[in-house]
Amino acid sequence: MFERVTSNLGPPLVDESLAAKLLPGVLSLIAGSTDVISFLGLGGLFTAHITGNLVILAAHVVAGGEAPLALMISVPIFIVVLALTRFLAAGLEWMCVASLRPLLLLQFLLLAGFLALCVGAGSRLDSNAARGIVAGMLGVSAMAVQNALVQISLKGAPSTAVMTTNVTRFVMDLGEVLLGHSPGDVTNASRRARRSELAIVGFVVGCGLGAGCLALAGLWSLALPTGLGLVALVMAAAAKLDGAHGHLLIPGLAAETRPERSDSHRASASETASNAGRA
User: Fold this and answer.
1) 55-92 pLDDT tens trace
2) pTM for the full predicted model
3) Are 41 and 118 spatial neighbours (Cβ–Cβ below 8 Å)?
């Protein structure tokens, strides 16, 4: 059997490098572009602002219209994928594998599947047909993975898909910077404000780019968030954004290394006791 040896496995701090600082902005671009493309191209389906689907669904019910199946199942699918992503991250942690890059890879694959199904349908995609529903759920799943990975794998990062929270946090922190009295609180608020600002700007720019690309290229515009998903993965890999991580040792190797540490500790303890006796 293999023995698991840990060494402070943890997510990278979002401020620890330039790549870590920029990654939430790239993820916000992905979320904004995916959300607007799916909303305009798939009959009003939100993939990132998932609770918006509840509002639209309620409007359909009140108006007496037929509720689209994609809207009805989007929230349960989102919740299930969040839970599965958490289980996957826990499994990776158990194996001492940092979760950031695997989850970014999973998001990219889901976005690529979303793109493939949409463009494979040709110029017209019926959002209420099986193909359109499955495609939409792949987009929802990709955004669920992104929402989870930001909390699990990027320490200190703001939400990259929920801008109401970010705008609220940004305004509150801006008020603290302008009106606060404690230097420590002002410094922390300024740091959080910069993080939130990047996410807000990224999402807004992503929405604009997504809408413009959809007008020009139809559902081929999903190549934009898919390409950005690949960029995020390459950034994390190139900058080695995987935190401290452990490794797997075979029992023989573990047996070779651990006794040395134990003997060293015993020798140190014996030397300390001897010195104390002479004193």
Assistant:
1) 888 887 888 777 788 888 999 999 999 999 999 999 99
2) 0.80
3) yes
